[in-house]
Amino acid sequence: METNTIVENSRTQMRRGVLEYSILLVLRCSDDYASSIIQKLKDVDIIVVEGTLYPLLIRLKNLGLLTYRWEESPQGPPRKYYMITDKGREQLAELDSTWQELVKSIDSIRNSSLLPAAGTCIENI
Asked: Where is the Transcription regulator PadR N-terminal domain (predicted)?
């Protein structure tokens, strides 16, 4: 397997791993519909397609983290607007805490005194 393919697969897995968190973050301040959520995620380089998002929205709804309402659209058919529930806000707080811990842990590894002395690594990041 080529290095670029390995890196791209790793990126994809990382993005999938934070997709639920990202969706809850997008919906934390305002309700939104699926294609707008997709665009907001694409705008920050978390690439997601409808085939990935819709099953996840359904799963989050079934878990009680999201709910939805139908709203008439000035352009086309009615839109399903998703909104975060109280349970979703609790989950978001937990995910946010977990994210902060993970970032701290990764930073600790990157800057660890357990690593070889500066300049002795094959490649510095």
From this structure: 23-94
